[in-house]
Amino acid sequence: MSVWDDLQGQPAVVDQLRQAAEGEGLTHAWLFTGPPGSGRSNAAKAFAAALNCDQDDITRRGCGQCHACQTIVGETHSDVTFVRTEKVTITIDEARELVSTAGNRPSSARWRIIVVEDADRMAERTTNVLLKAIEEPTPRTIWMLCAPSPADVLVTIRSRCRPVALRLPPAADVAALLVSRDGIAPDVAERAARAAQSHVGIARRLARDPDARQRRLDTVRFPLHLRGVTAAVMMADKLVKIATEEAASSNEERDAAEKAALLATLGAPESGPLPPAMRGQVKQLEDDQKRRAKRSITDSLDRTLTDLLSFYRDVLIIQMGNAVDLVNLELRDELQEFAGRSIPEVTLGRMDAINTARQRITTSNVAPLLAVESMAASLI
Fold this sequence. Notes:
The chain is of the alpha/beta class.
């Protein structure tokens, strides 16, 4: 099984990266773009493995079996750095550390590789820290940046990168991956891939967690019971509560473990107040955890609104004559009845309201509940 096998539905990208790994068109900086779930970071990881694969035959690099491939895929290789943030943004200090790392020659591999999975989460001044390192790279260093679209990266950066454009793979390819790699039953895999709209990570979560599938179905059915302002406000409150609870449950145990590990490392006393020298480090950890919690809630709520958007997407498809397959096939009867009570122009307006709420939540300081309440009122 090669490192390319996880890139389902991306034959053009695989060909491009294979050729580069064999030396044709290889450059020092790459920009991987594509919608969420398209596999940007997986493509960058596979490319990094192929570049540093132990195989002498260049046509076999990316074998997935050698020590280099396995450690890179497992993110434990000393010469390949993966950068992702669970906070709102990548800080300028983190960017400076990356530049310092990029200046070191590889210790054992052909290339030192820096993979920045959240390049769109850097402020302009932070991105400018990377600019010189990308303009004038150290020999044997390759940068790989990942972002939803080229517009999410400063033009000064993207003009120095070779683009790799990914698309969402067909749902059938995602389902096949879940069956072959994760051992999911074919019918569950097909339903999860369709519900996730081909987002591989979300499809895997839905396939493995029946409760997640039920929460998603409850979210999608909300518009069927939206009859007035009171119902809209209740819907908004429930959507935000679901997102907050999911984020809190995933972070709570991790936060406690991180704090315990830090206190043990610092040699903190088992009881009583912390010495002043330790308080600053504990406070820094708690601040980082708060930023991560905010990001978790934002991401969870955005996924919830994306599920809600799929309801109106299906309604619009029915109103326009069923030109493509529905995402929520299990609700076909309810969707058809709902579609018959409206017109495409109204449906498009409701979809715009959801996308506006998503934008407000992810890119501004608007309180999530206010943004979702405003959206819900527009859906009545």
